[in-house]
Amino acid sequence: MPAVQGLVPSLRFLPAILFRHNSLAVLTRFSFHILLLFLLAQIPAFAQNDSLVQLPVVEVSAVSLRKAPSGSFTETWNLEKLPTSGSNVAEFLQNQSGVFFKNYGPGSLATASVRGASSSQTALVWNGFQLQSPMLGQLDWSLLPTVLVDEISFQHGGNGAIWGSGAVGGTVTMENKADFDRKKLFKLQSTVGSFGRWEASGIMHLASKKLASTTRFTHLNSKNDFPYQPAPNLPEQRLTNAKQEQKALMQEFYWCPLGKNLFSWQTWLQKNYREIPPTITQTRSVANQLDKAVRSVLSYQRNQGVSVIRARTAFFRESILFHDPLSGPAVPSHFWSSMSELDLQRPLSHFFSMQVIGNQTFTKAFIKNYDGSASRSQSALFCSLRYRSDKISAQFDGRIELVDMKLVPATPSLGIYYQLVKGVKLGAKTGRNYRLPTLNDRFWQPGGNPDLQPELGWSSEVNAEFHFKKKRSDRRFSAAVFNRNIKNWILWHPTENLPYWSASNLARVWSRGLELRFHGATTLTKLKIQYDAGYDFVRSTNQVAVEKPKMEIGTQLIYVPENQVFVNLGIQYQHFGITYHHHLTGKVSTDLGELPAWQSANLTLEFEPSIAKQQSRFFLKIENVWDARYFIVERRPMPGRGFSLGGQFTFTKN
Amino acid sequence: MKSLLTLLLGCFSAIVFSQTIANFENFGLLVDEHLNDAGDTGFFSSGNIDLPNVYDTEFDFWSGWAISSMTDQTSPGFLNQYSAITGEGYNSSKTYAVTYAPTGTSQIFISDPLTQGYVSGFYITNSTYAYLSMLEGDAFAKKFGGASGNDPDFFKITVKKQLNGQLGTDSVEFYLADYRFSDNSQDYILDEWTWLDLSSLGKADVLKITFSSSDVGTFGINTPTYFCLDNLVTTNVSPVSQVESGMLEMKVWPNPASEFLKIEWKGAKPTTACISNIYGQKLKEVSLQIGQNEVEIASLPVGIFTLQILGSEFGDSTIFIKN
What we know:
The structure holds two protein chains of two kinds. By secondary structure, chain A is mainly beta. Chain A has one domain: Maltoporin, Chain A, CATH 2.40.170.20. Chain A is built from five helices and 37 strands. In chain A, the strands form six sheets. Chain A has a 22-stranded antiparallel barrel. In chain A, a hairpin with a 6-residue loop joins strand 25 and strand 26. Chain A is globular. By secondary structure, chain B is mainly beta. Chain B has two domains: 218 residues, Protein of unknown function DUF4465 (Jelly Rolls); 82 residues, Immunoglobulin-like (Sandwich). Chain B has a 15-stranded antiparallel sheet that branches. A four-stranded antiparallel sheet of chain B has the order 18-19-20-23, with no helix packed on it. In chain B, a hairpin with a 6-residue loop joins strand 19 and strand 20. Chains A and B meet through loops of A and strand 5, helix 3 and strand 16 of B.
């Protein structure tokens, strides 16, 4: 980016008769919460008569229609079964699903691009609420430790109707689950690795029939002073100013008093300090950044006969303190968001079920470039209607949303699965998706544009899944073809006759491609073999000529690879296991030219003995086994071969 | 008689030749001050030039030109955007001008082009911000030479004139940094005040300055587009004599000159020219090759002289002043 002053780096509809208040802002913010309580009091009006059968505790939960919408290509992983697939969500998804991450290096920023969408067009949802920063519209995925969650799902493609703004390229959901089955679980893992890395994490879980508590923590420290070659003919040098220290703590409480009700509370505290290393064309850097987050979700779920009623409320407060002593004083920023949802799900008949969700979100952000603060109020109503028979599952989703009292274009979607024959499923989906301009896009001074329109467009896909299961083997092959057009793509550009940049709805992007996935597992007496492979082809091209930034019609967006391949192979024999992961990413164009294709592979050796009848696991992981030298981001080197050695001890009692 | 002639010669010289120097001392800045808001006029004026300034009062942003007496030669980053790498103006003066061109172009307006529309040139150097960015790299721009030191990087300006709304075709390039040498020891980033000779451009009412850099991305030039300027000289007499005829073209500059006279000869073959005084006395014969020539005139006395191409059937000649 050129040198500019104040660089930009890279986030009521309710009846007023209920309450009167002089401040519209307070009405907007709080009236929904009050309405929530009002509606909860009316629950018996929605429900059928109580069932005479006492439902087991485990049946308190019911699968939301949002979780695996019909027609969508969705992958789900239980993290307990994949302990070495990545210590953070970026690493995990790259290993398991080939998601492309624009990764600035270990301990540095990592943002996702799914199906050729931008980093602010992939939604990340934690226990029902989106995590992207309302100021930046995106998230640093390297700051999400996998030890903090139980399950990750990845919904490929647009799901704007379900999740709202930002769910354009795909949606990743992370969930914590109530576990009343295991009475005690203590898990402690410690890892040491190359480049000054050590990490300790653990889980402590206690549960009775009605109460459960899970505490998770992680502490990571790394120097990241790996050697790299600035250019092929130059000697190696060590990366400087690249330290990272991350601490995270999550506390969960679950209370299931009567078997039909479940109260859940999760609070996530995190602090991440990292130094920002120099580029290969920079002599030194002393910049650093401190990220802090406090996230808390309180949920209530009630099974009322065949209906499920859920109420959730969340409060997030996150801050970033960026400081480059060479450039000036520290730049603090923070935001808080208050979110609430009321969710009703029930079957209408043997074939039809519906779900209605009302959501209210209020956000306020602070940074000096906002001239104080900026805020946003969102009220949304989501409806889903699903038809399910033996052969067909069809789902219609619709969403309308008010943002600061203005209606966002409605986002409907229609998806369908068809079970052709046993083991063969066809799917199709079409829907409208959008991404609201971030608070920075609208209110940054100078250059923010309060009149920006949401990025908006339609996406479609067809997919097929083939599942062959035999006594000793289980194989699943899936293919998806997608197409998406997004208009009003927001870009920052130099402002004519003014000395700063501005945001405008400048571009239109056409994305299309193919995704292939293969998963298999074979069991031979004491030998288990698991294998995954995937290939993504993505063409994501700009369809409007733009002067600055220079974008010609038909050119692939920068940092969107056309081709990606990954392969995982795992072999387990009794207590021993070996896992190999290989990843290949094709060349990408960048703002400075082009980066060549790169590939990297990891090898993990595991030994899982039973000690005192308890589980333990020891592992040796070799990262970048073939010592490839590559760049994912211009001028940001990636480390060569590295090692990590660790052990995990688990004590459980059911 | 001789003294009368000398007096007449001096008067003639004074009538014929005058120059104005814009040195920005008229702003009366103290050390380590700067002005980035020209107010309602939108221009900073000094000497015979007006420097356009855009200042956004709402956001405290500026572009175009600023006036500075900042002395910080060591602090990197845009917070030190007003300093010259020399830490002072030309010839140890206090004040100078600094330009910031976010779109890659800058302008200088000649206040009185009718009477003093010829620009001899100005002294130029790098801002500390741009200098250190090229020297060490920063988060947005590369260190010149790259990781190996061999990258053929450069940072330059191109100056063209505009007269009566017409952009001239001639241009003058000046490298603020040049790493294109095969011998890396010759690579440089300008860190002193250097004369930029613009006399070849001719009469102008606007100077258009365009930045170029080897460090360019999708968003344009990554190198900070700043430079500093001092002592811009305008004259009433063309510093370049140009002789055009049906067959020959010769440019002569600077005018006045003191030590060397540059002569661009565009004839089909080398030729010979002679230098004569106002009395017609031949003082010197010089050989001219095709292209640019440099003729020593330090030995000539102060006065007005004629340079004539020998053998030219059109009697091509021009007058220049030795001062």
